[in-house]
Design brief:
3 domains, 376 residues, 6-stranded parallel β-sheet, globular, 14 helices
Length: 376
């Protein structure tokens, strides 16, 4: 919780004013309290009127209760907020049952889909538009067309628009019951719902299914596979995140991403496995057409990746990033990949970078660092 002594210092003097608004103090705000309503309201009023608007653009995480949620969400514009936790917030089922539009989007894994989300949706019989984007973990079966039709669509007779993007991870599947793409999608097709899907298996006992409505209208997509289908074009996606722990991502996978997501602005890669199919610039048969290009990519996050992926994206004979201005990467890997910032192959992709974020910031930089990143 933001301490009273901290937020009461705003306006006392310039030094304390800067301290109270410093991002290290204000990136996470917890306004849940055990005080009585009267005391809580007094403190909350002061916080909202004197402080909140001055630190709103620093806040990344907010934890609110029923007494604070309305005032806090109305007063601020939280441009960096990525996590909102609601504590002791009663659900008014009468209000829920009258909703016409509902959207639930989460990029964190949940095991509460059947216990919490499905029962909540069943109270929304009057919905006209529903958006679900979820990553569901450790379920007994895939969330497929049969489930979406029988457990959601059939309960919502007024529903006109259903946008979904659902991954079911780590599902134990008997080999004799492996499902096909046709079986997953058939119930939706019969309802005239256009959709796509794919499945992937680490082992037979560890499967995943990704099912999504088409055309894909959401701006972000996450995948946990290197077997993404090559038949779809996702013109609305601006943010793509790929993570995998049991297989590496090869050059062709990234070429596939560039084709499927032509307007991508942000790309995250999470994979610590070395590539098996390394392509060298001097390799016989290497062609100019093998070079991948992400013309609109401005943000690249390789902070959870191994050395091969740093080379894959920064060396211009593998990948061209003419618009890159923000890079997240482990400093030591960047150092090794660029040979202490002397490797010419990475200069072009680093030339326009204005912001760089390291897992651990070094105390000093080699003399060539500024030449590599002249706009920092």
């Amino acid at each position: 919780m933001l301490k009273r002594s901290q937020y009461s210092c705003i306006g006392v003097n310039k030094k304390l004013d800067r301290l109270a608004r410093d991002i290290t103090f204000t990136h996470s705000i917890n306004l849940v309290t055990t005080l009585s309503n009267e005391h809580h309201n007094s403190i909350l009023d002061r916080f909202c009127s004197l402080i909140l608007q001055r630190i709103q653009h620093n806040i990344q995480c907010l934890t609110l209760d029923s007494l604070s949620v309305d005032r806090v969400l109305r007063i601020g514009n939280y441009s960096k907020l990525h996590k909102l936790s609601l504590v002791n917030l009663p659900i008014e089922m009468e209000t829920v049952s009258n909703l016409k539009y509902f959207s639930l989007i989460s990029f964190r894994e949940t095991i509460e889909y059947d216990a919490k989300i499905v029962p909540l949706l069943r109270h929304m019989s009057k919905l006209e538009k529903l958006t679900l984007s979820l990553i569901v973990d450790r379920r007994n079966s895939f969330i497929d067309g049969h489930h979406l039709v029988n457990d959601i669509l059939s309960k919502m007779s007024h529903l006109r628009i259903f946008i979904f993007n659902i991954i079911t991870k780590r599902v134990i599947i008997d080999e004799e019951f492996l499902v096909t793409r046709d079986n997953i999608l058939r119930p939706l097709i019969e309802k005239r719902c256009n959709a796509g899907c794919y499945t992937d298996y680490c082992t037979i006992s560890d499967g995943q299914c990704h099912i999504f409505s088409l055309p894909f209208t959401l701006e972000r997509m996450d995948v946990f596979t290197n077997k993404f289908p090559d038949s779809c074009l996702f013109m609305n996606v601006r943010h793509f995140a790929a993570g995998l722990i049991w297989r590496p991502f090869e050059h062709e996978f990234f070429a596939q991403i560039s084709r499927a997501f032509p307007l991508l602005n942000k790309l995250e890669i999470h994979n610590i496995l070395a590539q098996n199919k390394k392509i060298t610039y001097q390799q016989d048969g290497y062609e100019q057409t093998s070079i991948i290009e992400f013309p609109h990519l401005t943000v690249l996050d390789l902070s959870g990746s191994s050395l091969d992926y740093v080379k894959q994206f920064l060396f211009d004979f593998y990948t061209r990033l003419p618009s890159l201005n923000t890079l997240h990467v482990e400093y030591q890997l960047l150092l090794f990949a660029t040979q202490y910032f002397t490797e010419d192959a990475a200069r072009a992709n680093c030339l326009k970078v204005k912001h760089i974020f390291f897992n651990r910031k070094p105390k000093t930089y080699p003399e060539n660092f500024r030449d590599y990143f002249p706009l920092l």
